[in-house]
UniProtKB/TrEMBL annotation:
Pfam families: DUF4216, Transposase_21
Protein's organism: Cucumis melo var. makuwa (Oriental melon)
Name the UniProt record assigns to this protein: Transposon protein, putative, CACTA, En/Spm sub-class
Superkingdom classification of source: Eukaryota
Chain ranges of the DUF4216 domain: 342-410
Amino acid sequence: MLQSAHEESCNTSNTFDTMFDDAKKPLFPGCKKFTKLSALVRLYNLKVRYGWSNTSFSEFLSIISDLLPENNEIPTSLYEAKKTLGALGLSYQKIDACPNDCCLYRKEYANSTKCPNCGLSRWKINKNSTKENSGVAAKQMWYFPIVPRFIRMFKNLENAKNLRWHAMDRKIDDPKQPGYDINTYLAPLIDDLKILWEEGVWCFDAYKEEYFTLRAVLLWTINDFPAYGTLLDLPGKSKDGMNSRLDLVEMNIRPELAPMVTGKVVSNTIRWLAHGPNCGVMTYEGYMVNGCSYHTKSRDDHRTVQNSGIMLVATTMQVSSAKDKNPVIGDMSFYGIIEDIWEVSYNTFNTVLFKCKWVENKNGVRIDDLHFTLVDLSRIGHSSNPLIIATHGQQVFYISNPVDPRWSVVVRPPQKDFLYKCANDDLGDMLPHYPPVSKWNSTSDIDESGDAYTRLDCEGTWVTT
């Protein structure tokens, strides 16, 4: 924050020095938790978040000043607070607009007093007379430039890391919305986008710790259906009755007005899957699934025990040739090596995925005369489907063929469940027992209970299907 403010205020005398002093000055003598600047930023954030009026915020600052010990540094009015925060670049542009949303008084219309389209006066007219209040605009737009906002977002370490996962969404929906002429109010935004597209802005990336030329382009805009109804002047646009009825259900009143759900009820698991995973993915070098320890190939290269082999039995369409018109649906085994282990979060539950390199089935897998399965690990195929759910795979080991080192023999270990479910002592002694690994650096256990990922500790919500 201070770095960005210093770059923007370097041409103003004493501005940065004053702000830097406020950033180090205690809120009151003996205060170690807040400085004048940090306390003011927190309070101003509350004002913006909950929509406090300017008058209420000024009175709130005055009360806080009285509650704090003497000689405190808290400003007593919004005007003083804005003078302190002005160096941080929390500024906006006030642009006069035509009351009929015809144009903005900027560029070639900056000095105009009447709208060039409808002829309406730029200035506000007194209610008690027909005189114009010269200098008092009838309508104004507050525009927050996006270029400094993008620069600040990249200078924040967390925002810089996640910025590419977000798309800009602009929606104006309030009693003073621009109505049918929203394009008029998007003109300043388009000008900033032209600068970002044609010239670019020199910016610092806090995540990569390097400077780069920031460029941006608006690919598309997202609008909701009420906005379409306003813009297209569709008849019947009124209060959203469905949401109102859902509110009654949540308040547990007037059950006769609750919407009736028809058709199949979609589980919460399906809803979160449709929503999509979080952008952050945990990666591991080892994972325990169904009693078996799985490692990545990079970890196996430094160990004496092999745990990166994987086999998947999938139901697929099998054809004998490209001209085969009678395909057969059946099970087919695929063999590969685990390259990465991902844990994907869907907010209410996690799913473990194996990213594998699969052996090409046509020329990389064969059965020898002794009915052993041989694979050529150098023949890689099926690259378009590298990911599988961890619980769907089965562990295998690859032993180099002494006759032809190019081929490896597939060995399938016994199921681990038998070691715990076996009730016959003799049978249990016959099965090989593998000593447990004492320590894992980055291994987690997966829940195989199969329970539905739904919350039972709160009231359900009616939804439409």
